[in-house]
Design goal:
By secondary structure, this protein is an alpha/beta fold. Helix content is 41%, strand content 14%. The chain is built from 15 helices and 9 strands.
Length: 372
C-alpha cells in the first residue's frame, strides 16, 4: 500500500514539466507487465539466480528479476559443498545473501538442495583418520546437516528440495553414497528431519527425466511407499532440462497427471530448452564436426523453433495449472546456462528467455502472447 507521502509525491508528477517527468520516471520506472503478472492465475514463475544476480551487482538485472519473477532458486549456495564444506565448518555467506534478497523483494524462495549424491565435499564419507564411517555416523551427519540448514531459514525459505535425484533411469535407484550407507530409507528420513525443523515449509522431491516411462514408474513406486509411511512430502519437482524435441509433451503430461493423482503438487523446477545438437545423436562425421554451429548468434529459424517449443510447453502447463505450483527457469539469460558447458564444454547455447544482452527473446514473447 502507498503511504500518504508517496501518494502526494505520485500525484505531484502529474503537473511536472516533461523533463521533470522523465527524470521522475528514471527514479521510479513504470514496470512493464512481466511473466509473473501474466501467469499469476496459473502458477509462480521462478528463476535460478547466480550470486552476481542476487548480490545486485547490476540494477538492470535486478529490474528484470523483480519485474518478471516471483520465486527464486539459488544454483549452488545451498549445496553441501558450498554451505557445509567440512564437518565442522559452515559457510552461510552466499545462502544468507540469497535469503536477504528474497526477503527484500518478497520473493517465494526455494532452498536447493539438501540431500544429493553430487557436489559433496571431499572427505564427507571418511572419518578423521581417513577410514570408512559407520552408517550410524553417516546418518547423524545427514540429520544434522538438514536440521541445521532448515532451522536457520525457518519461516524464510518457503520450499526445500529435500532429496535431489535419488531415482535411476534403468535401475530403480541412482547410485549414491547415501544409498550405499543408509539404504533407500534415507529418503523418508530426510523428509522427516526437514519437517521437524520447519513444519510449515513445503518439502519437495526433485529429479530429472521424469517424463520417461521407466523413470515415471520408479517415481510412482517411490511415492507410494513414502505416502504409505506418512512421509511429509508435498510436491515433486520435475526438473525440465528439455531440448527442442525431447521429451514429448504427451509424456510430460502423463507424469504431471500421475503425480497429481497421488495428491502431490508438481513444480517444473529447472526449465530450459537446449537448442544445440546432442553429440550422442549425431550419426555422420560432418554433423559430429559441427557440434557448436552458432557461436555468433542463433539463426532466425531456430529462434522461431525455440519460441514454438516454449509456447507449447507453457500451453501444456497452463492446461494442467491445477496441478502445477511453480515453473522455474534454470537461469536468467543465455550466458548463465550450464548448457553452454554440458555435455560438451565451451559451446554457445541459447536455452533461456533472455539473450546475452539481457533482452527478451522471441521465446519470451511467445509466452506473453499466450495471455493476450
Ligand atoms: C541438476 C541439479 C542442479 C544443477 C543442474 C546443472 O539438475 O539439480 O542443481 O546442478 O543439474 O546446472
Amino acid at each position: 500500500m502507498l503511504t500518504r507521502r508517496q501518494l502526494i509525491k505520485g500525484s505531484a508528477a502529474l503537473v511536472l514539466s516533461p523533463i521533470e517527468y522523465a527524470a521522475s520516471e528514471t527514479v521510479s520506472p513504470k514496470k512493464a507487465l512481466g511473466l509473473k503478472e501474466a501467469f499469476k492465475n496459473d502458477f509462480l514463475i521462478g528463476v535460478m539466480l547466480t550470486p552476481e544476480q542476487y548480490l545486485k551487482r547490476s540494477t538492470q538485472i535486478d529490474g528484470i528479476v523483480t519485474t518478471e519473477f516471483n520465486s527464486i532458486t539459488s544454483n549452488n549456495s545451498f549445496k553441501w559443498e558450498s554451505i557445509h564444506p567440512t564437518t565442522r565448518h559452515w559457510d552461510w555467506s552466499y545462502a544468507d545473501e540469497f535469503v536477504n534478497y528474497g526477503l527484500e523483494n518478497r520473493m517465494h524462495m526455494v532452498g536447493h538442495s539438501l540431500i544429493w549424491h553430487a557436489q559433496l565435499p571431499v572427505g564427507l564419507f571418511e572419518t578423521r583418520r581417513g577410514r570408512q564411517p559407520t552408517s550410524k555416523s553417516v546418518q547423524a551427519r545427514m540429520d544434522n546437516h538438514i536440521a541445521t540448514i532448515v532451522d536457520r531459514y525457518k519461516g524464510k525459505v518457503n520450499s526445500w528440495d529435500v532429496v535431489n535425484e535419488a531415482l535411476g533411469s534403468n535401475q530403480k535407484w541412482q547410485p549414491s553414497p547415501w544409498l550405499n550407507y543408509l539404504g533407500p530409507s534415507y529418503i523418508e528420513r530426510a523428509f522427516k528431519i526437514a519437517h521437524e525443523a520447519d513444519p510449515r515449509a513445503e518439502l519437495v522431491y526433485n529429479d530429472y527425466g521424469l517424463a520417461a516411462p521407466e523413470k515415471r514408474k520408479h517415481l510412482l513406486e517411490m511415492l507410494k511407499d513414502l505416502q504409505k509411511n506418512k512421509t511429509p512430502l508435498h510436491a515433486v519437482g520435475m526438473q525440465g532440462h528439455f531440448n527442442l524435441t525431447y521429451p514429448h509433451l504427451n509424456e510430460v503430461e502423463k507424469t504431471i497427471m500421475a503425480i497429481s493423482k497421488t495428491g502431490l503438487k508438481v513444480h517444473i523446477s529447472e526449465l530450459e530448452v537446449d537448442v544445440l545438437p546432442n553429440p550422442s545423436e549425431q550419426q555422420d562425421s560432418a554433423e559430429k564436426a559441427n557440434l557448436n554451429p552458432w557461436p555468433l548468434g542463433l539463426p532466425t529459424s531456430v529462434e522461431d523453433k525455440l519460441a514454438v517449443r516454449y509456447s507449447d510447453i507453457f500451453k501444456l502447463l497452463v492446461k494442467q495449472r491445477k496441478s502445477i505450483g511453480r515453473v522455474t527457469l534454470w537461469g536468467l539469460a543465455d550466458q548463465n546456462s550450464w548448457k553452454n558447458d554440458f555435455p560438451i564444454e565451451g559451446r554457445t547455447n541459447y536455452p533461456l528467455l533472455f539473450n546475452r544482452k539481457f533482452q527478451k527473446k522471441k521465446a519470451y514473447q511467445s509466452l506473453l502472447n499466450l495471455k493476450k
